[in-house]
Amino acid sequence: MEFLRPYLDAHAVSINRFDPLDRVHTVGASDVGQCERKVYWTKNLGDPDYGAEPDADYVDSYGAKLRGTMFENVFWAPGLKASFGGRLLFAGEDQKTFVSGYLSATPDGMLTQLTDTERYAIADMQAGGGYEAVGTEVMVECKTYDPRTNLADPKTENVFQTHVQMGLVRELTEYKPTHSILSYTDASWWNEGKEFVIEFDPSIYANAKKRAERIMTATSAEQLQPEGWIGGGRDCEYCPFTRPCGVERRRVPDAAALAALPADLVDEVIKLARAIKQMDSAIDTETAVMRELQDRLKTVLRNASVRKVPGVVSWSSVKGKSGWDNKSIREAAIEAGVDISVYATEGEPSDRLQITLKG
Ligand code: SF4
Q: Would the CA dihedral through 45, 49, 53, 54 be positive or negative?
């Protein structure tokens, strides 16, 4: 029970300057790397033909987004402005949205008129990067991250976002940023963080444009892949459309088999079934190799009596999760005369795809 929380929630809504309708006709740089099916449904929210009903129990948590916005507006952008002055463009109050076709971006800032010393410093941060490749303009992007995150590398969707930002600025202005400095700050300890330098790749920008067009011109979710699910489900954890997506993915056709199957259909099915079997067996092999390597690494650390090699590996004990012995609880409830049938639940329906191809 909380007394103040509702007032804070209301304030969060009132100061959230992002309006989804602003970008209803484009895919933003921060969205374009996300699951394409989720982006499609988000863009078509409320549309009776193309939209989908969001999950009834979905809660749009504003916390992480608001944290990022606050940090950027109150600390990060003013901090950079204080040092770079007029050389910092498109930041803070001067933020600007760039739009080309179906793609849009609102970068966090761009540093201009870089000195040779600054260019050398940026080149030094980039593994294998040369000073000559760093131009006199670089984009800067602000992120905060949960300290529990293992941020050995920048997040893929953030890297994609930087390419889109650089591409749009290069296409629509006289500036030609060659790199982006992706600046992550630990959300708990603002004096800690990591920075990554991303070199502009025109082919990634071209891909992003095509991807945005494909999402915005699709006429059904079926035309777009459930990339969140394909990628292991991390995106799905924060997706408002898990139910319609699950229904779509599990949709089994009525007919078990056609009397006469077209030859090209059979060919394609065999090809895919064989590829799945091969991949399945490759995963088993790779998993065994990976476990063997993990065991060897632990043995090396154990023999050396160390748990950590800074910046490389950290090994620690993890306490077991506490849980409930449901079987005993059920038996005790029955013995106590409780009608447990009233607590029965039914899980979400699922589907099973069995590959029966031999060999
Ligand atoms: S549930 Fe996962 S796969 Fe489906 S739309 Fe959402 S993010 Fe994509």
A: negative
Whether ligand 1 lies within 6 angstroms of the CB of 229 is answered as yes
First CA to last CA distance, the chain? 60
Q: Indicate whether 105 pLDDT > 90.
A: yes
Q: Is the model's pLDDT at 291 over the cut of 90?
A: yes
Look-up of token digits 């063997």: 292
Closest CA to 138 of 202, 188, 181: 181
- From the CA of 248, give the closest atom in ligand 1: 4
pLDDT in tens, 230-257: 999 988 988 999 999 988 888 888 776 6
Dihedral sign, Cα of residue 13, residue 18, residue 22, residue 25: negative
CA 129 to chain centre: 26
Q: Is the CB of 98 under 6 A from ligand 1?
A: no
- 5-14+60-221 is classed CATH 3.90.320.10: yes
pTM for this entry: 0.82
Q: What is the DSSP string of 254-293?
A: S-S--SS--HHHHHHHHHHHHHHHHHHHHHHHHHHHHHHH
Nearest to 148 by CA among 195, 196, 188: 188
Lookup: tokens for 233: 């489900």
* Joined tokens for residue 210: 């095509």
Tokens of 308: 């950590």
Half-sphere exposure in the Cβ direction for 109 (13 Å, CA):
26
Q: Does the C-beta of 224 come closer than 6 Å to ligand 1?
A: no
Number of H helices, E strands in the chain: 11, 10
